[in-house]
Design brief:
Length: 193
C-alpha cells in the first residue's frame, strides 16, 4: 500500500529546501552543467547516495522519475521504501528551469508556491549518472540510471563533490538491492534493471 502523507510528504528529497520559501540558490563556487538537454534526462533515476536528512531517514530503494508537463514544466515523482513499515512513501512535485533550458539549474516545488533549487553539477555525456545539489552544501545526491553504479564512477563523483566542498564523509549509500526493493503499487518492475 502506498503511503501519501497529507500535507508534507516525508519524501521530498529533491526539494526539501522548498520549505525555505523560495530558496532556489546555487552552492557558492559551483556551476550547473551547460549544454543540458531535458529529453535524455527524463525518466527514472536511482538514488545511489545522499547527504542525511530526516525526510529520507529509513528510506531505501529511492527513485525519482521526471516527465514533461503540459505547461512546459517537469513532473517529479519521488519514491522510497520504508522497510520498517513495509510501505512506499511518495511525493509528487513540479520543476521549471530557472534560466535557460540548456543549463542544469531548476526550481522544484512540492508545496504550493515554494520552490527549492535543483542544481545538476555533474552529468556524463550519456546521462547515466549525475551529481545534484540543492541551494547549498547541505543537500547532495548521486543519481544513476541503474540501481547500481560501478565503484570507480561512484568514487569519481564523490571526489568531485569533495573538490566542490561538500561534506562527503557524511554521504549515505542508499540500498537499491532488488531483493528488498519490492514493486511499487501498479509496477511489477521496481528494483529491477
Amino acid at each position: 500500500m502506498s503511503t501519501r502523507l497529507p500535507h508534507f510528504p516525508r519524501l521530498t528529497w529533491l526539494a526539501p529546501f522548498s520549505l525555505l520559501a523560495g530558496c532556489t540558490g546555487l552552492p557558492e563556487g559551483t556551476e550547473p552543467v551547460r549544454d543540458f538537454q531535458l529529453t535524455p534526462y527524463l525518466g527514472q533515476w536511482y538514488e545511489i547516495a545522499r547527504l542525511p536528512h530526516r525526510f529520507e531517514e529509513g528510506l531505501d530503494c529511492v527513485t525519482a522519475t521526471y516527465e514533461r508537463r503540459e505547461d512546459g514544466g517537469i513532473r517529479v515523482v519521488n519514491r522510497g521504501y520504508d522497510r520498517l513499515s513495509g510501505e512506499w512513501d511518495e511525493a509528487e512535485g513540479r520543476a521549471y528551469f530557472i534560466d535557460q533550458a540548456n543549463v542544469g539549474r531548476l526550481k522544484v516545488s512540492f508545496f504550493g508556491p515554494f520552490y527549492g533549487g535543483y542544481n545538476v553539477l555533474e552529468l556524463d555525456d550519456d546521462y547515466r549518472h549525475a551529481l545534484v545539489a540543492g541551494p547549498d552544501r547541505d543537500y547532495l545526491w548521486i543519481l544513476a540510471r541503474r540501481p547500481q553504479l560501478d565503484e570507480a564512477t561512484y568514487r569519481a563523483l564523490v571526489q568531485r563533490a569533495d573538490e566542490l566542498g561538500f561534506p562527503v564523509d557524511a554521504l549515505i549509500r542508499v540500498p537499491q538491492d532488488p531483493a528488498h526493493c519490492p514493486p511499487t503499487p501498479g509496477d511489477d518492475t521496481a528494483g529491477t534493471t
